[in-house]
Amino acid sequence: MTHPACDDSTPFPSAQAVSPDRDWVFRAIDLLQCDGRRSADTHLINPAFPALKGISIYLKDESTHPTGSLKHRLARSLFLYGICNGHISRGTTLVEASSGSTAVSEAYFARLLDLPFIAVMPRSTSSAKVDAIERLGGSCHFVDEPARVYETAAAIAGETGGHYLDQFTNAERATDWRGNNNIAESTFRQMASEPHPVPRWVVMSAGTGGTAATIGRYIRFQNLSTRLCVADVENSVFFDSYRTGDPAITSARPSRIEGVGRPRVEPSFVPGVIDRMLRIPDVASIAAAHVLSERLFRRVGGSTGTNFMALLLIAAGMMREGTQGSLVTLICDAGDRYASTYYEPGWLAAQKLDIAPYKAKLDRFLDTGTGLEELS
Fold it and tell me: Taking a C-beta distance cutoff of 8 angstroms, is the pair 67, 108 a contact?
């Protein structure tokens, strides 16, 4: 007896019946991969800080992506992940919960694929990011309580029959951490000919936690001696969760450092690949952003300040111990998006943030190699 599935008399379904949007899928993936080939490798900057004897600092400049931030990589990965899993097809409305930079990048890719895009974000998100999303053809839906971005985004996706990209869940699973020119592979390849090619530490702040997870996994997969330090900010729960082992901790207050820090422990946060965590005060993050901006002759964002502050604390510890080597961190985005906040004296005064004392300590450390001992 012939099995029904193998019965030659049963007409074989046409390709059109199996997948009416297959041509669209092929074209979409090709467009996304073309963007990846154009923008995958960003500069690795090696600024000179002569006072830091025996320590070389490297900054992976993710602000040079077409959408101006590290989130360009994540957005492309999320789109590929959604398409290849059958969640995104022709005409799908895309929805994301985002404090800004991820949504800017996702709006770019949505326009590339001619798909509607809605960003759900806190009302406090910088106007520059809102303007960027709208210029790219996306629309913004604001919530007054930052913790409600998740449920609101999921609800809008359901109401529109669309797809919730869900960066906070999918960041660590959408990226191939073993290689495939991810940010870790790119950075270590660029470091290969440097005096200290294997960094002692890579420092990364956490938003979704996905980039830290990719870097930490890659370090272990390649059997490298590099250690990963994750920097957290005020009103974020990542540090406390890492310290206590409690993944259920929440915070009622939003992070002031856009793009990093979360009110809950996100699914993409993988504590098992982290070697050390530091909590950086917001005033120190912003002061560090100002100091680095002055020395690079261009502005960097607040999350880059968080990264840089944590990196300098590790550098101070290495100098105290007489240890040499290289340290790597990221320029997450440019500071022009924050002209009305982190670089606006009136905003800093309203937030009661006096960056001058931290700025003086950081300048002294970079110029003399001293001044951070009590903080490190």
Answer: yes
